[in-house]
Every structure is written in structure tokens, then in C-alpha cells.
Give the backbone structure.
Amino acid sequence: MTRVALGLLLAALSAAPARAQPTPASQAPPVAPAWKPFSELAFLIGSWSGTATSGSRVGGHVARFAWEMNGTYLVHRGSTIFASEEGKPEETVEEVGYVSYDRERRKYQASYFFSTGVSGIFDVEILGNGSIRMTAPALLNYEAGARWRLVFVRRADGGLDTAIEIALSGKDFVPYLTSGLKKKTAAPAPEAP
């Protein structure tokens, strides 16, 4: 009788539909990593240097982007130097920018401070081509009604083009300062926090 019961049990098991076997990890479709704040901005991390132009003046520009305060801020420190020329003294302008992510509004915001005393709070847009555009609708210590825009464009060769554009009250944006930068450090950028 036990042989008959065992035979029936084996017959029932072999006739039952086969369960789906788990797919080995090597055959599973790749899963995209979860989005993290600052992942779109990670290409900026590092030290950069290059030329700067403002009108007819040509000078140099250096910039450094780094994670600070436990990765809650992307900090941009930069300096632009124009050598003296006829009728114009040497000029150095420094900037410090703090980019943060507002989790409630799900958007980036930046606060920038310039050695000229000008400062502003910028709305940050990540454009479809990977460029970053920051726009301040108002400024402290600058002409009333003026707006500033900061633009960062990653070039195909790994370089970075930057621009400060100014729109005086009721006017369109025009370039004020442009830079073409190359990364000074060859080490790969660390991942966003």
C-alpha cells in the first residue's frame, strides 16, 4: 500500500504545473539605480581652470565644485582675474555658491555671493541636454529690477562652458562674463551623496 501511495504522490507531483524558477541574477534585467539628489550635478565636482571674457577684456577663471556639510550642499567657489590694461586696473571677482535640494518642493535652489557685494537666490533648472541654468529674479546690491542668470554647459570634450548673463529691468538677458574651462584634476568625480 505504501508503494501505491508513493506512486500516486509522485504522479501527482509530476502532473502539477511547474513553478516558475527564480531568474539567476546574471539573467535578470538591469534595474536602474534610484534617483538621488545632486546626481545631475555630479559632473561638476572637481577643479576647473580656463579663460574668461567680459566685453573686450580677457582673463583667467578658476572654479572648484565640492560636496560640503555631509553632502547636503554642492559648493561652488570661483575666481576671475583680469589683468590691468590701459585705463583699467587689475580686477578680481570671487564667487561662492551653495546649491541645495528642497525635498518638499522637489527642486534645486542656489544662493550665490560675489565679492562685489552682489548676491541672489537662484532657481535651478536641469535642462534636457544636461546643462544647468540658474536664474535670480532679483538681486541684493544691484540695480533694481535686474535679473541674473548663471549657465553651466558640459562640452562633449569634457570641458565646461560657463556664463553670467544679466537682464536689466525690462530687458533681455545679455552675456556679462563667459568662461571656457577644463578639468584640472584627472581623477574621476565621486558619486553624489
